[in-house]
C-alpha cells in the first residue's frame, strides 16, 4: 500500500494508543516507514511507566522504572536515538550489604571483583567466571528467539512453517550443555541454578535478586530462573546483564524517543485518553477519545497491556472466545512498589564509613536467598514483606542534574507488595508500607531517616492508576512460562496481530515482554509494515 | 577496594614512576622507573626482584592429595619428589587447556599449588570421595622472585641453602630469621629463585634481599619488564597466549597442550594414569589432529629494515609487546597462523614473537609473513619460525 494515497486532512495511516516507551518506539518506526502516525497519550506527559517527574523543586524522581539495560541496540541505531539525546550513563558499582553488616561491592575491575568474591568464599572465586560465562552462553543461544517474533506454531501458512523450521534448526544448533543450561534456567529456580555455582550465602543472595524483579515468584520458586534470565538478556555497551542510567532518568529516555518519533513526522497528542477502538465489519477504523472525538485510521496499535487491549478497548464479544478466556486468566498480580526519596545527603554504611563510592549503581537490599524467599512468603499469603527486598539507586550520584548540589534522589524498587492485600487496602497501608521500607533502610544505613526531605510511596495500585498497567504489573503481565514467547499474550496471537484486521498490539504484554526494552514496539511495527505491503 | 601485597610498603617506596596496574585486585608495579628496558636488563645482566605475591596459592594436603592432583594435572605429579616443583597445566575433558600453574611438593601428602586464576572451587568439584584438604592461602604468603645471573650470589649471602638448589627444586630455609620456602623457579627464563614467606615477615626478607643486592646491580622490575622476559623465555600467559577453555566461547579460543607447545608434558600419556582430558589428548596424538603448533617467530631483520626504509621511515625497535595478535601468512599468502605475543628483544636484537602456526609451518626456519601496518597500510614482513624458547641461557638450569 502506498501510504500517501490514504492521507487526508482528518485521518491518519496509523494511530498508536498509549505513549509509553513501546508506543513511542512503534510510532517512531511507523512514521519512519512513511505512515502518517498519531500517538495518543492519556497523561500530560509521554513515557508511560518510564517517566521522570520533579516532585520537589530541583529533585527529579524516576517514579516508576529507573534504569536501562534491555533496550535493544537495534533501536538505538535504527531510530538514530543518539541524535536525539540518548545518553546511557555508566553505573560503576554494584553494592550488596550482607546480613552481618559486611558487603559485596563489585565494579568494573575483573580482578578486584574476583577478590571481593573470594573475600567471602575462596571456593566461589573461580565459580564467578564460570557462572557468568554459562549465563552468557545461554543468552547468546536465546537471543535470536528474543529478538525475533515467535513463530506461529499454530499456523499452516508457508511463512509459519518456514518460521518453525528456522526455530527448530536454531535450537538444533545449540551446544548440548548450553541447551541444557537454557532449560534449567527457563524452567527451574534461580536458587537451584545459583547454588550449583556458589556456596556462600551472601554471594548467592547477590546473584538471586534479579530472579524476582517484577514477578510474584521467590528465588526458590520454579520459574524464577526465567525471570533472572530475562534480566540477563539486557546489555550495556556489549556487557550482558549490565545496567545503565539514562541521563535525566528513564523519563529522559522517553523524551528522547518522543523527539525521535517527532523527527520522523509522528504526531504526539497528550491528554487524549482513548476509550475505544472503532471497528467495522471486523476491521479497525479508528479510535474514540473520552471527550467523544473520533479519529479514523486503518491501523490502530494498542501499546496497552493485554487486558486493556482485548477486554477494554474492543468488545470481547467480537473476539474468539478462547482468546478472551486466555486474556481473562492472563496473570498480572503485580507485586512491586516504589518508594522514592529526596535526600539531604548520602547515607552512611557503617562498614564503609569514609566512602560513598558504593553508591554508583544498584544497592541491593536482599542479603540472602532465604531473606528474599521469606519476603516472598509474606506476599504469598496476601501481605507486603515485613522485611522487604529493595533495589535502590541514588541516581544523582551518577547524574548530578537529578538533584540540587549536595542533595540526592534515591529510587527504591520494593518487593514484595502484592496488588491484592488480604484484609487491607493500599490507600490505607501506603504510609505504613513506606515506613516499613524506610525502617529497612534505617537498619542498614543508620541515620537514613534524618536525610529524608521527601518520600514518595508508589503502591501497585498507584502504578495501575497512573500508568494503566493492570494490577500494577510492571511487565504488563507476569513472566511465567505459559505467558511467554508463543503464548504472549495468548496462543496464536503472539505476532502482534489481533483477530480484528488492522488492530495490532505492541505493548510489553507481547513478545519478548516488559522492561524498557522497545522490542515489542519495534517487532510490531515490522509486522504492520509487512502487512501493509501485502 | 584494591589491595596491596605484603611487600608493597617497601617496594612502593622504590617505585618512582607512580605507575601500577591491577593484578587480581592488587596493586602491581607497571614499572619502577621510567624505563622498563632498564629493569629488564637488570634481570638479564645482574639481578632483579619481582613481587609475585598476587598468585593464588592453595595447600592441597591429605592421604589422597597425590591421587587428586594426578587425576587432574597433565604432568604426572607422582614423579615429583618432595622438594621438587612442577610447572604444569590442566585440561578439560575434551583435552583443551584450562590453566597453568606450579605445584610445589612439600611431602608425600602436601602440595602447594600456585596459579594465575582462582581454582579452589574447581579442585573441590573434582575431589569426590578422596581424602584431601584444600585451603586457599593466597593472602598468607608473599612471594618474591629474585631473578637474573647474580641471583644466586645474592641469595648465597642470605642463606647457605641457595647454592645447592637445582632447577625446580625447593627447600625450607631461613632468610633474616624468617622461615621461607626457597625455590629455583621463576617466569623470566633466567637463573632465578622465588622466596615464599609468611606475610607478616615479608618485609624483613625483602629488606635482607635488598641489602644483599646492594652493589650488585639489583633493581625491582615491573610487569612491563616481566612481559619482555617471559616472551623471550617462551612462557605463555593466560588470557594473552591462551584462554581457559571453560570460559571460551568457541574452539578457536581453545588450544590443546600440544597446540600450546606443551607436547613435552605428554611423554607418559600412554601409561595407566587417567587424568581429565587424557583420552582426548591421546586421540589427538594418535590421529595427529592438532590444528596448531606453537613456535617462536623471528623477524628477518633485513626485511624489517628495508620495509621501513623504503617507506621513508626509521625502522622501529620497540621492546614493548604489542597488545594485539598479528596474522601470519605462508609463502602463498594463505593465512597460516597468528602471533599471540610480539616484541623487539633487546638481548636477541631481533623482533620476536610467540606464534601459533599450522603444523606444516612449524618446522624451524620455515618462512612466514607477519602482517603489520606501515604508513597506515597493511603489509607483511618476512619472519622465520624457530624453536621455543628463543632465550635459554645455560645458567637457567645450571
Give your account of this protein's structure.
The complex is a heterodimer of chains A (534) and B (398). Helix content of chain A is 36%, strand content 17%. Chain A is an alpha/beta fold and 534 residues long. In chain A, the strands form 6 sheets. A 7-stranded mixed beta sheet of chain A has the order 7-6-17-18-19-16-20, sandwiched between helices. In chain A, α1 packs parallel to α10, α3 (110-120) packs across α4 (122-146) and α6 crosses α9 (224-232). The longest helix of chain A is centred in the first third of the chain and has 25 residues, at 122-146. In chain A, 55% of the residues are buried. Mean pLDDT of chain A is 95; it is low at 1-9. Chain B is 19% helix and 31% strand. A 6-stranded mixed beta sheet of chain B has the order 10-11-12-9-3-13, with helices on both faces. A 6-stranded antiparallel beta barrel of chain B has the order 14-17-16-15-18-19. A 5-stranded antiparallel beta sheet of chain B has the order 5-6-7-4-8. In chain B, a hairpin with an 8-residue loop joins β11 and β12 (192-198). The longest helix of chain B is centred in the middle third of the chain and has 12 residues, at 202-213. Chain B is globular and about 60 Å long. The mean pLDDT of chain B is 97. The interface between A and B is medium-sized, with 21 and 22 residues.
